[in-house]
Amino acid sequence: MKKKSLLKIMLIFILNIVFTYGSTVYQFENGIPENIKVSETSKLEITNLKSKDGNNSLKWTFKGNDTLSILGDVGYSTFKNGGYEKSRSSYVMWVYNKEAFDDKMLVQFKKNHQIKTSFEMSMNFQGWRTIWVQYDRDMTGTPEEGMDEIVLISPKKSGEILIDQIIPSVLIDPRHNTRDEQVNFVNLDADTSVNTHWMSLYKNYNAITKLEGKALTQNEISGIKSIETRFRDNILKKTKVNDEIIKENEKKLDFYKTKTIASPQTIVVYRDFNDEQKEKLRDIYILEYGKWLRELAFMYNSTEKESQKNKIYSIFKEALDYLYDQGWSRGSGQGTIHHLGYQVRELYQAVFLMKAPLIKDGQLKKASEMVRWYSALGIIFTPEEKIKGVNADILNTMLPGMLMGILLNEDEKNIGQELRQFNKYLTKSIDYAPGLIGGFKKDGSMFHHMQNYPAYAKGAYEGLAPIIYYLGNTPFALDKNAYEIVKNAMLMTRVYSNKKTWLLTLTGRHPENIFEIADDIFRYTAFGREEGVDKDLAEAYLRLSPDGKYSDELRKLGFKEEKAPNGSWTMNMGSLQLQRRDEWLAGVKGFSRYLVGNETYVKNNLYGRYMSYGTFQIVENSLKESGFESDGWNWAHYPGTTAINLPLEKLRSSLSQVDAQSGIEEMLISDETYSGGNSLNNNGMFAMKLHENAKYNGSHRARKSVFFFENRAILLGSNIENNDGENETHTTLFQNYLNEKEVTFENKKISENNFILDSQNNLYKIVDGEVVYKKGLQNSYNHKNGKPTKNNFELAYINHNKAPKDESYEFSILIKGNKDEQEKFKKDSGYKVLQKDYRAHIVEDKISGMKGYALFESGEIKNDKFIKSVDIPSMILLASKNKSLEISFVDPDLRLYEGIDETQYDEKGNMKEVNIYSRKWNGNESIPHTSSIILKGKYKLEKENKDVKVEIKNGETIIKITTTYALPVKINLVKID
Q1: pLDDT tens digits, residue range 52-102?
Q2: Residues 780-818: b if buried by 16+ CB within 10 A, e if exposed
Q3: Which residues are catalytic?
Q4: Are 783 and 607 in contact (CB under 8 A)?
Q5: pLDDT at res. 646
Q6: Backbone angles phi, psi at 523, to 5 degrees
Q7: What is the DSSP string of 74-85?
Q8: C-alpha to C-alpha distance for 596 and 894, rounded to whole angstroms
């Protein structure tokens, strides 16, 4: 007896230790814990009928208002500011209901027998449901550390439930608790947050409206059939079917029914599980299960044998029923639902392809409701005045599900009404989005995460383009305006990419040679017009994929491969300037007080601070073929940048969760408004005031510019300064991966007025600055995990020494020139620098006569033939011919707000790290601003321009130009004699 008593005391002691640290998990594999008590009228037992992990769950049979008490420290901890992350204590529990009933279960948390906080769980469901309820935000009352009892009060009527995997307190990111029909009070802020498209299932489902409208026209009825046929044909894959394969899938079903169907996002609640607790988990992910269901759908549609169809459908139906039982049903939020769209595309397709047998069996409604719930179909009912842009995740992962949810209606009239609503939503959401809000921009950018983000644009177009194709040439097609916006954005992807690979500085948090633009999007969208096929998109497809899946189809229609885009493009919503000739692309990128310079996550881009410090890159074919390889890459030397040469260990980002609206990430901005580009007559320029965020070194500054004339680039820098006395500051000319096993080591200095030909056949002329050239094995770190990497590289940079003050540089590049051009360039590089100082960088191209003005300050321009003064910092390109002037003017300030945002500065007036998502100005429209240029001499407009006014005064011409969003304004002037 003494041994048993001692064992009992030790067990209680161990349990109390676990409770104290808040890592308790109730999995009910070893009987009923002694600290769980119920009312006399209740009964507790362990059952193996159903469970969420392990083999057992807790069965509670109760009378009305019975109680179940769990004694011991709840483990709640008060949130403390200033920590690495902003996760908060949440209560997690799984509950199984055999029958839905309209009542609630009350959950209370006590301290010394006093109720401190509580919440209610709706019991109107059947199957498993989980709840993630945050103590501080979601519950009634005020939680306290040291709470020592959890009390479940049963509904008013008698019944029974199963309970499993109770986690009294676990830290969960406050953005991710999901509101659903069981706990519809959870995380209400998510309905208006950045992640609302993922998180607002409850709001969106309840926004679905029964539409009443005019009867469908014959064209609309035909259009519905066309959409269904195109959709079905596009996703259906014929597959092998025989009795043996059917039996294998029966066994698969038996296997899956021993598993928990989960979303990968839910693993956060396992963060503190020990090995023994983790061993009891038996999750498989919904993505795997959905793919299997889709395979069954493929099989069903690949056989004509009725007996096989019946067996396959029987497996499919039982698998669906198990999925519902697992909690994958209308009204269930799975605890958290963020990023679910990536996991359920195949599930939606499976249901869509099985529409006919589900209708025949009377089972479509439940399946349809599931798709309509998880796809957030209700988003299409958003009032037009509240639609501001569109989230790339919606286009990529949710839009196809929404369309399938519509097509899963049994009533054709309902399909037609909802397709009309779908069209309205798409048309409005595709319109230009304000500020940094996700969606399409006038310069061809596609925004996500508050920035131009090609990786997300790729996914967005891959989701949207087939939808445009399905709707094309029907009454539900996009109207001309929306279609042209999408078309222009898609065509821009093959401008900032070459041939399919986009610039390194546009890779976001994935600086790797892994991304390519998708060519199929051009074909899909070409066929998505209201009428006919779009020539530009069709011929872009043929250039990108001359032997592609659809190339023969397009050639038979008379389309030919386009020539590679050549010219100059300005994308100031991305602080990006592009120059293309022949088959190469050169691009330069900056950042500002509006646009982030980097995106860094815990496992991505850990050394990416300098990605937008005036990065200049030349791309021909893939990034690797153009000189970039992440293994061995020196992250302190992005080409074109002016940056402090920190040891990479010190360059690694210091990450934290800045506020509750952000993740554990870094997205730094500057306090400068001057960063962007300009284009005129297929040439361009870029300039920026570089100022590093004070999170690292707020003393680091530079004034930088790039001028493009045909295949020549002139790069200037002035006023380079910082207070780092330990590390040199470098302006990088190039860094190129050498795809050679053995490389002869080199380390040399190259003086001014010399030339360097890099391994990419780009010729550099150094005018101002001593260059260090290195060649050999280079050691670095993996940008995801910090593990050592190495490779052979060549690297060239101008050394500005330690703690530079008023340093400068000048070099020019002949891009991909042949030998004759290189010899000519060595004799005369064809340009003249007229000014390079704090106020301005001005360059004249001696070949074309074009002049570029990077005017960092307002005021007079000394000794210029054409321009007397400007009233704001600006960028001007000017070409004169006989008695005419062509001017392209840019006010690079995006003007999303005026003055300063005081929340971005500390008490000493220094910039501090802030979350770009929580900036109150990030969704503002650009404030129109009228700027003035005073020209020497008298000019008039060649033709009327609504954005430009001209006034002659005292023999001078005053030009007033109204701009928004840093868009270039082209002005054609004629001299007045």
Answers
A1: 999 999 999 999 999 999 999 999 999 876 666 688 999 999 999 999 999
A2: bbebbeeeebebbbbbbbbbbeebbeebbbbbbbbbbbe
A3: 449, 456
A4: yes
A5: 98
A6: -70, -50
A7: -------TTSS-
A8: 13
